[in-house]
Amino acid sequence: MSSIITGLIEYIVNLVIYVIRVSNYPGIFFLMFLEGLLLPIPSEVVMAFAGYLSLTGQLPNYFGIPAVILAVLAGSVGNAVGATAAYAIGYYGGRPAILKFGKYVKLDQNSLDKTEQWFNKYGEVSVFFTRLVPVFRTFISIPAGLAEMNFKKFIILTFGGTLIWDSVLIYLGFVLGSKWEAILGAFNDYSYLAIAAAIIVLIYVYRKLSVRASNGKVNKQRS
User: Fold this and answer.
1) Which of 78, 119, 152, 157 could make an S-S bridge to 29, C-beta 3.0–4.6 Å?
2) How far apart are CA 44 and CA 31, in angstroms?
């Protein structure tokens, strides 16, 4: 089991590296958008690698703005946009929609209840502080939407927490240099398992949808 998890983590890391090398800031934005949308993209890898690229001059400056600043902004804005989409799911879809589709990203009834309890206990400020907690940082958007939290407050707290988180990761990648992957040691076993499980579920869902789409085409041709 550990070898499978290790292989999945290595695949994610290599994918993140490839996307950022090919597309630079749009890639950082896109990957962090996916993480904000509850998909298993580890921001630790995205932003630490971006910090390393900034240090080595492999990310360009634009309009006199240093690469490190652009990387932080790309990641933070991307994550905030993804979090907004997750917020909208909670706000407009409600619990039925969340429980129906949340299972595909390991957000079940129990996880939703715990996240809601956290939100209800600590209030709106929990949106800010939870952004500083690995793995769980993305799920807080759902109960915020369910509670119909004021969107302006939500996005300000989300962006503020995300900006701090991304800045720390960028700094670590900047300081560690070519050894930036050492930050992966900060992942605990639960983080690995959560990411691996989410990937497996996403692959399963993709295959199911592909089969359903192909069957639909066949039925249309017959009719």
Assistant:
1) 78
2) 11
